[in-house]
């Protein structure tokens, strides 16, 4: 089977599985697409949520902020509309792509935003397959990648994570497989604009390219970073503040400790879910530590170490529920997945497939309520 055909087959079955997750979630809300926005139920029916019919308690969730930005991503947002305007707006990729085919139409966005995330999950599998074949592995490693990285759960709430993660993996594939340079420049730009922390991985790739004297690759990566820096500067000028969220970072291990002693989480979920979730975070830290000890490729080691640092420095706000920590710490499982491909090991990635519980539970949960 050719590489292109293998990628297409894996992408197809990835789409089937994640459509089932999305469909099951949607059916629990009687097919109301506005449930994906996860808007504050106290604001439903009033601008900018005049097209929303399903609201959520506890103030809703983050997808609502990106829906608001997607209504018009080219103007600054006020603090009475967004919780952290500059911090949300710097992640421009997802709302901007959602705006392009809709012009910000409030009803059209309800269709386009989940479809973009589904497309991102398919792209994640596609580029994962390219990487797997490049290292001599089975194409089905690409099918496992969205599961290991938990791309399915945030797609249920119109979050930026699936697109940002897909762009990051596509950038790594373009660099490691040595795809045409325009791929590398495009995906480096998209990765950073999708989620600001991805810029650090682009920097790591740039450093690796400079060390290996791949000057053209370094130029493409630097171009992506330059676009991102320009956007950050623009957001800083518009809002008069840096687009950061200090609550996400705290003293080392304080967030992990908070998660361990608050296992019911912010929303009173069953403690058993967070027991497994927190154990998975600790497991990922351990696997990344083992990975580094085994002297993997430098770029993979850098991603692993950055992932450990992010988890250790994550504040209590990040560990309030699985909806946060299960999607924020994507670097660690990504590094482990890459290490498995590059070293020929399988068991670490197989262990991380336990992450399938997150989209499964998230798609079933509305039925239980």
Q: Tell me about the largest β-sheet.
A: 2 strands, parallel
Structural class: mainly alpha
Number of strands: 2
**Run of helices and strands:** HEEHHHHHHHHHHHHHHHH
Q: What share of residues are in beta strands?
A: under 5%
Considering DSSP H and I runs of 4 or more, what fraction of the residues is helical? 55-70%
- Count of domain modules: 2
Strand order of the largest sheet: 1-2
Report on the architecture of this protein.
The protein has 369 residues and is mostly helical. The protein has 2 domains: 238 residues, no CATH class; 112 residues, no CATH class. 64% of the residues lie in helices and 1% in strands. The chain has 17 helices and 2 strands. The protein has a two-stranded parallel sheet. Helix 1 runs antiparallel to helix 5, helix 2 crosses helix 4 and helix 8 packs antiparallel against helix 9. The radius of gyration is 20 Å and the shape is globular. It starts with a helix and ends with a helix. The mean pLDDT is 95.
Compose a concise summary of this entry.
The chain has 17 helices and 2 strands. It has 369 residues and is an all-alpha fold. It folds into 2 domains: 1-238, no CATH class; 245-356, no CATH class.
Topology:
Blueprint: H1 3-28, E1 39-40, E2 55-56, H2 63-71, H3 85-89, H4 93-99, H5 106-134, H6 141-148, H7 161-176, H8 181-194, H9 198-211, H10 215-239, H11 254-261, H12 271-293, H13 298-313, H14 322-328, H15 331-343, H16 347-352, H17 357-368
Parallel strand pairs: 1-2
């Amino acid at each position: 089977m050719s590489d292109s055909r293998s990628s297409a087959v894996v992408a197809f079955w990835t789409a089937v599985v994640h459509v089932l997750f999305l469909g099951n979630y949607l059916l629990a809300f009687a097919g109301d697409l506005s449930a994906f926005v996860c808007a504050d139920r106290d604001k439903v029916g009033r601008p900018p949520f005049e097209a929303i019919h399903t609201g959520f308690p506890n103030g809703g969730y983050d997808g609502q902020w990106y829906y608001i930005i997607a209504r018009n991503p080219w103007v600054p947002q006020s603090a009475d509309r967004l919780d952290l305007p500059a911090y949300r707006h710097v992640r421009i990729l997802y709302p901007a792509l959602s705006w392009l085919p809709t012009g910000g139409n409030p009803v059209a966005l309800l269709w386009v935003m989940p479809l973009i995330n589904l497309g991102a999950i398919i792209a994640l599998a596609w580029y994962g397959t390219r990487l797997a074949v490049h290292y001599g592995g089975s194409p089905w490693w690409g099918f496992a990648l969205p599961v290991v990285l938990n791309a399915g759960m945030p797609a249920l709430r119109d979050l930026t994570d699936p697109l940002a993660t897909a762009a990051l993996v596509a950038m790594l594939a373009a660099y490691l497989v040595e795809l045409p340079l325009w791929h590398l420049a495009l995906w480096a730009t998209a990765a950073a604009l999708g989620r600001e922390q991805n810029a650090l991985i682009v920097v790591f790739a740039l450093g690796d390219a400079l060390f290996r004297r791949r000057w053209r690759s370094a130029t493409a990566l630097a171009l992506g970073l330059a676009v991102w820096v320009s956007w950050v500067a623009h957001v800083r000028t518009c809002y008069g503040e840096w687009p950061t969220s200090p609550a996400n970072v705290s003293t080392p291990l304080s967030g992990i400790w908070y998660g361990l002693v608050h296992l019911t989480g912010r929303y009173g979920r069953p403690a058993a879910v967070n027991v497994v979730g927190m154990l998975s975070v600790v497991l990922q830290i351990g696997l990344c530590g083992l990975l580094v000890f085994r002297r993997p490729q430098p770029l993979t080691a850098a991603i692993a170490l950055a992932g450990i640092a992010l988890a250790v420095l994550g504040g209590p706000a990040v560990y309030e529920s699985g909806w946060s920590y299960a999607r924020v710490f994507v670097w660690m499982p990504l590094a482990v997945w890459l290490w498995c491909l590059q070293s020929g090991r399988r068991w670490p990635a197989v262990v991380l497939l336990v992450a399938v519980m997150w989209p499964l539970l998230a798609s079933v949960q509305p039925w239980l309520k």
